[in-house]
Amino acid sequence: MATISLNPTLYSQAQTYAKADGMSVEDWVAMLIKRFTPAKKRKYKMRKIEELSPELQALIGFAKPEVANDDDINGDKARMEYLIAKYAAQ
């Protein structure tokens, strides 16, 4: 068993809270550590679109952005085409 040290004021406060909860200081501190220790993050595996339900596939297909041309990776040409089409017709 490992031992930790607390200053007397903190230990007194821990005793008070532990007693109010009907616990020993050791059990009370252990409960706090368990409560505030983050749980292991779950790792999620991305599924292929084909593995999803048809309803999800339809939603994803609806929100898919257009694929940029290889020569227009940052979308500058597409943006200019859009602006010309929008404002040149006026």
Q: How would you describe this protein?
A:
The protein has 90 residues and is an all-alpha fold. It has helices at residues 8-20, 25-36, 54-63, 76-87. The protein contains four helices and no strands.
Task: Describe the structure using short key phrases.
mainly alpha
Task: Provide a concise account of the structure shown.
With 90 residues, the protein is an all-alpha fold. The chain has helices spanning 8-20, 25-36, 54-63, 76-87.
Described by strand count, sense and barrel closure, the largest sheet is: none
Number of helices: 4
CA radius of gyration: 30 Å
Low-confidence stretches: none
The helix/strand class is mainly alpha
List the SSEs and their pairings:
Blueprint: H1 8-20, H2 25-36, H3 54-63, H4 76-87
Helix pairs in contact: 1-2
